């Protein structure tokens, strides 16, 4: 303890003694028990210093390293979440459009990857009824949806030939129009009775696949629509006996 600190300590002690004499034991005890320790705290705090530049640099480096590790670790989880988001969006659009057709008693279409729109777009259209025996009016745009950019309606190497609901052979990403003999269609039209048809009134069953170019095989999903009832099912790939198979979600 230096001379200045000693003088200050003696001053606080003198104040405590004076208070003790003038105000009795209670005030004096407070002086000795609270004021004098407070002086020690103040003296100790005056000796504290801030962080050095080296210490701050080390702390920052550790923080950045931890953030980098967390970012890399979370990438597969975030990618899987985007894949699931694309699948859930497609399921929602199909189910909501079918419900709309039934409740509104009109025909509504869902088109996958329509021309003039970015890849990954789902276009919902309304087909107004014909007036009398006249032709059908032009389709009207209802709304559009998009799936995440790194998710697409596409195939991935390793897809099994046994397609979901036995619709096709897993060789076409958007494969509606099953059994119609006119090639694959990229749309499905939901009718007021809930069925799924093409624009000529034929029952329209099919499947659409979703995958990520940078993703794994088992992240992929598929969605099927059964023409007669408009039933919509979701599918995912699982390994079985060392080979992938589609199972209903």
Number of domains: 2
The number of distinct β-strands equals: 10
Poorly predicted ranges: 26-32
Classify the helix fraction into a percent range: 25-40%
How big a fraction of the residues is strand?
15-25%
Widest sheet, order of strands: 3-2-1-5-6
Rg from Cα: 37 Å
Oligomer state equals single chain
Structure characterization notes:
- It is a single chain.
- The protein has 249 residues and is an alpha+beta fold.
- It has helices at 3-23, 25-47, 53-104; strands spanning 107-112, 121-127, 140-146, 174-176, 187-190, 196-197, 206-210, 221-226, 231-240, 243-248.
- A five-stranded antiparallel β-sheet has the order 3-2-1-5-6, covered by helices on one side. Strands 4-7-8-9-10 form a five-stranded antiparallel β-sheet, covered by helices on one side.
- The N and C termini lie far apart (77 Å).
